[in-house]
Write a structure and sequence with these properties.
Layout lengths: L1 E5 L5 H10 L3 E5 L3 H9 L3 E2 L3 H5 L4 E4 L4 H9 L4 H4 L5 E4 L5 H13 L3 E4 L2 E2 L1 H6 L3 E7 L1 H12 L2 E8 L3 H29 L4 H8 L7 H11 L9 H18 L4 H15 L10 H8 L4
Parallel strand pairs: 1-2, 1-4, 2-3, 4-5, 5-6, 8-9
Antiparallel strand pairs: 6-8, 7-8
Length: about 290
């Protein structure tokens, strides 16, 4: 399949590489030339612009930081909708506001372009291992077309509802992930404050009812205070804003989400925005006078 891939960052680069490895013809574009060159070295085609990436593509995938970039790349002059031929399928895998996904779908319909919102979970490790969880909003028929491509980059791939639904499920994912990181951090601070070896304690927790993927993947690095980013606090801050805005729009109360949002914001204010979101531990340490 001919694929245009726009956004070759920490997630997009390995994802585009998996598509090339799966036998798809991938033309990639990014504002960072080195990222485009990396895709070309992996067997993809180096596109010189958004228009160049879209030209001749049956499917266009966007993987961008936030809704302003999606709006510029998709809706802006010279963007995806200005260059995609009718019948093209646009799969936006960025994590953005649900209302932006709905707006994009409406604008695309007027051009005869089909759209899916398909945000992912799993971070850089999931992208590199082609093990992402992908939650997809849009028409079922379009999901069926996109599924072979999604299977090249993910393991859990689910159609969750109409346009925007993928983004709502991703917001729910991020509030749960943030909450678990905050609680694991508190567990570490509690055990260490009481003179208990936190590594041993977390090993026990990981074998009981408190078991979760974050304990499986991150407990050792958190105890060791190794916070090299797989998913930066800056990005999780953005995602918590999306969750809070969605809650307000749905007229529902999410008090725990509000607290986690404040903890993530505090981590950014402390200068930890470039660290992995497991660095929420540092906020709890600071609050406890143990930084």
């Amino acid at each position: 399949m001919n694929v245009g891939f726009i956004g070759l960052g920490i997630m997009g680069t390995p994802m585009a590489g998996h598509l090339v490895a799966a036998g798809h013809a991938v033309g990639g574009y990014d504002v960072v030339p080195e990222a485009v060159a990396k895709l070309a070295a992996a067997g993809g085609r180096a596109a010189s612009s958004v228009a160049d990436a879209v030209e001749g593509a049956e499917v266009v995938i966007t993987m961008l930081p936030n809704h302003p970039q999606v709006e510029e790349v998709v809706l802006g002059a010279g963007g995806v909708l200005d260059n995609a031929k009718p019948g093209t399928l646009l799969v936006d895998m960025s994590t953005i506001r649900p209302e932006t996904s709905i707006e994009v779908a409406k604008a695309a319909q007027e051009k005869g372009v089909r759209v899916l919102d398909a945000p992912v979970s799993g971070g850089e490790a999931g992208a590199r291992q082609a093990a992402l969880s992908i939650m997809v909003g849009g028409d079922e028929a379009d999901f069926a077309v996109a599924r072979p491509l999604l299977e090249a980059v993910g393991k859990t791939i689910v159609h969750v509802g109409p346009h925007g639904a993928g983004q709502v499920v991703k917001a729910a994912n991020q509030l749960v992930v943030g909450g678990i990181y905050a609680l694991v951090g508190e567990a570490i601070v509690l055990m260490e404050g009481c003179g208990v070896d936190a590594k041993t304690g977390l090993d026990v927790l990981a074998g009981g009812l408190a078991a979760n993927r974050i304990l499986d993947l991150k407990r050792e690095s958190m105890v060791a205070r190794q916070f090299e980013p797989g998913f930066r606090i800056d990005l999780h801050h953005k995602d918590m804003g999306i969750a809070m805005a969605a809650a307000r729009q749905a007229d529902v109360s999410l008090p725990m989400t509000g607290l986690v949002t404040q903890l993530v914001a505090a981590a950014r204010a402390m200068g930890h925005g470039s660290l992995d979101h497991s660095a929420l531990l540092k906020v709890t340490e600071q609050l406890s006078g143990r930084a």
